[in-house]
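Title: Request for sanity check on Sulfonate ABC transporter substrate-binding protein prediction

Description:
We are preparing a figure and want to confirm that the structure record we downloaded matches what your pipeline produces today. Could someone re-run it with the sequence below and paste the raw structure tokens into this thread? We only need the token string, no images.
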Amino acid sequence: MQFSFTRSLLAVSLLTLAAGLAQAEETVRIGYQKYGTLITLKARGTLEQRLAKDGVKVQWTEFPGGPQLLEGLNVGSIDFGVTGETPPVFAQAAGADLVYVAHEPPAPTSEAILVPKDSAIQSLADLKGKKIALNKGSNVHYLLVQALAKAGIPYQDIQPVYLPPADARAAFERGAVDAWVIWDPYQAAAETQLQARTLTDATGLADNHQFYLATRSFAKAHPEQVGAIVDEVRSVGEWAKAHPDQVAAQVAPLLNLPLDTAERVVKRQGYGARFISPEVAAQQQKIADAFTALKLIPKPLVIRDVVWTPPASLQTAAAQP
């Protein structure tokens, strides 16, 4: 009798554990930053409504930058997230098992090299020997590489100061660095609050795509959820493009920015998420090759090896007008 009771308790415990695991699997964990369409999607709540029909919850986690977000993906704390162009290159080089899922159109004005308003720096050539703050491995890292190449300055001839955005702004404000390479909304905030001067944005230097990535295991196990997220990102992006004033009013308090600054951020974004095309993968390959040539990553990469191929049904749906 005692054995039977113990066995029943064990069975109940196993069922409870299984139910708990099943419940955990029904939460999709998304990483976002203070920029881009995901913050609008989070504010509108349409993804939660869509996935709730299938019993799936959404959990949001904010990250200060792309490298930190991809580390979250790599260690399994999130399933899906968004970054700029460069972080996935560094993550792939470090062996992270991630896949590119989708991208936004180029937004080259949403990142820039800033200098103080009264700086003597007037051209890219003046950056030689200067201390330049940036978040290592972030999207602006490639902008800096391209800007220096345009000016004929070897990367070794500057003094990179690798700092996350908040620390970089503090260093910029107190004059501890000569320039700051940064993206929106930090870029817009520095322009409006500090009267920082734009030495150059990414126009003609970098596309500044936003990329959506997932862990390979999540994309493989939950392709329909991945497709639903991309579809909702695309949908809310189209709405945002047509209603920038409403978007700015919605995200300004989330970004802790004045409305006019939020409007600047919103209007510089790219909208219209699509699955990864061969052309976009080829552009990303150029970025990887550039960092390999500079020996900032340890080995050559093949971008197409980490591009997710959605099921045919999702590709067909995405192609619908």
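Thanks, this matches our download. The domain at 2-106+209-318 is CATH 3.40.190.10 (D-Maltodextrin-Binding Protein; domain 2).
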